[in-house]
Amino acid sequence: MAGHVSLRDQSAGILIVEDDPEQVRLYTKILRNHRLTVVSRASEALHCLHGIRPDLVILDHILAGGESGLDFLPRFKEFAAHVPVIVISGTLDVREQLAALQGPLAAHYVLEKPVHLEQFESAVAEALARCGLGEVVAQLKSIERLEKDSATEPERRYTDRLTRQHDLLNHFRQGAPDPSIAGLARRYQVDRKTIRRDLQELVRRGQLPASVLPEEE
To answer: Less Cβ crowding at N or C end of the chain, within 10 Å?
Structure first.
């Protein structure tokens, strides 16, 4: 229907960096409702980042070819600082786990093998809903509160746009009924052109497929 946005296939894009076929099968089963890209080396994952923009990276520590996931973590974060990372490992001690979670280039979560399914699902859900773009939005709002009246109109509009886009992503992924452009415009108190532009930006960043873009009304 013209002006409606299909919510089918509005799953998150997840990059899995894992060389163990059994672990890959486990992850693909748990994450079957998401769009998955699977590679066995961190160097392959870095190459993938030139063509895709994942919403989440699941990174094993010991990888094919003797590569270490933690050695590549800073390069991941330098290339895509806003993308949350879950590190999976059966060999890291407590000190190494803490180190992986500290600093500006750190992971968001470190989970031990064998992976506890409920813990894994919870970490994935929270990372997608609240980390990444969600953290960027929270930081911008915090800066605006500190600056109070000194924030410029373009800065406020930028924060509002990212806030709206993050909310749109979460709304889509919750499996709500297909919304209309007009309905979304009323919800966010903006015009329909603004909603279309938000969807176009999310598609361009790879966070939504092109199928969400509605026909012109």
So the answer is: N
